Input
Amino acid sequence: MFAIDWQADGSVGLKGRLDAASAPDARAFLATVQGTCRLDFTHLDYIASAGLGLLIAAQRRLADAGGGGLILAGLSPHLREVLSLAGFEGIFAFE
Output
């Protein structure tokens, strides 16, 4: 199961598994985001390559639209390692 939605603090919460099956929902949601956006990974259990690709696409779109971008927050040690191995530390801001 996967869920993505706005949180009370204005960040975007991710929950469950971000994989090929859930990537279209996440892509559609992230297409509505403007400027700088904090993504809260606290309740995300798993991210597949399809999820990594859509994060890159969203980051590129936001940067091209005027300097915005994604801030990745609430990462478990495992997800932080996956993103680090994928080279995301040079692309995204981490919180």
User: Anything to note?
Assistant: The chain has one domain: 2-94.
